[in-house]
Design goal:
The protein is mostly beta strands and 250 residues long. It is built from 2 helices and 14 strands; from the N terminus they run αββββββββββββαββ.
Length: 250
């Protein structure tokens, strides 16, 4: 509680402190404010590991499972519209191709790994971005502007069918996510063109009911038991996207 009061007091003091500073001419190399910006980008969805989850066969035997989920190349577009001052609305659409997943199954006999194609991933967000103040005086060699943002998001996992399974398992699963990240944006030559580098995290909350429909079919085949029951210990994961884009600013 005391920490929250101190943070609030510091935040309220910032405008007064800024007003007391001498008025200095900003560097001509600073990124100008824009009413609207569109940024096509390319990037990489970083691979990550799942937490453990558990499979019980018809006899009540427990099998421990975890996955090494592959990353993938990504493309997309960001759009920003300034609301007032440093605050902007931000929206984004990103698509990442599928990569190889590794399914690690541990039984009393040891651990066995199975390889297969992971899902293609589509990510959509809509939220707010805040431009951090530039240093005054600005003695940096380079003059990028920094933006932080937070947004509710949706993540779609598009699974393909698995060759050799009698039952189709291809489907699209939708999951809610919370997106947070930071961008560094620096102008390139002209006022309306800039280079944007970003790192963002989609904290994805898994829809386990939808996941279970597919996973039970897969484990029925692997364990040769059509009575398996799944229990998920993992409820969320961090899906990290690193990207580089060319920003058109108006």
């Amino acid at each position: 509680m005391k920490f929250g009061v101190l943070v609030l007091a510091a935040a309220l003091a910032v405008p007064a402190t800024a007003a007391a500073q001498p008025r200095l001419t900003p560097s001509p190399e600073l990124l100008p404010s824009a009413r609207f910006a569109v940024t096509p980008f390319v990037g990489l969805r970083v691979a990550y590991a799942s937490g453990d989850y558990f499979v019980f066969d018809g006899a009540g035997n427990e099998v421990t499972v975890n996955e090494d989920r592959g990353g993938g190349a990504a493309v997309g577009v960001n759009a920003e519209a300034r609301i007032r001052g440093p605050l902007s609305a931000v929206a984004s659409l990103a698509y990442s191709a599928s990569d190889q997943d590794v399914l690690n199954i541990t039984t009393a006999a040891g651990t066995e790994s199975f390889f297969g194609d992971g899902p293609a991933v589509t990510m959509v967000k809509l939220g707010l971005a805040y431009r951090l103040p530039d240093p005054i005086p600005d003695e940096r060699r380079f003059h990028p502007a920094a933006f932080v943002y937070a947004a509710p998001a949706m993540v779609w996992m598009n699974y393909a069918d698995i060759e050799g399974l009698d039952q189709a398992v291809g489907h699209t699963a939708r999951h809610f996510a919370l997106n947070m990240g930071v961008d560094a944006v620096t102008r390139i030559g002209t006022r309306g063109l800039a280079l944007q580098i970003g790192v963002e995290d989609y904290l994805t909350f898994w829809n386990t009911d939808v996941m279970r429909e597919r996973d039970e079919v897969v484990f029925n085949s692997i364990l040769e038991d059509d009575t398996v029951v799944l229990e998920y210990d993992e409820r969320s994961s961090n899906i990290v996207l690193v990207r580089l884009g060319l920003s058109f600013r108006f």
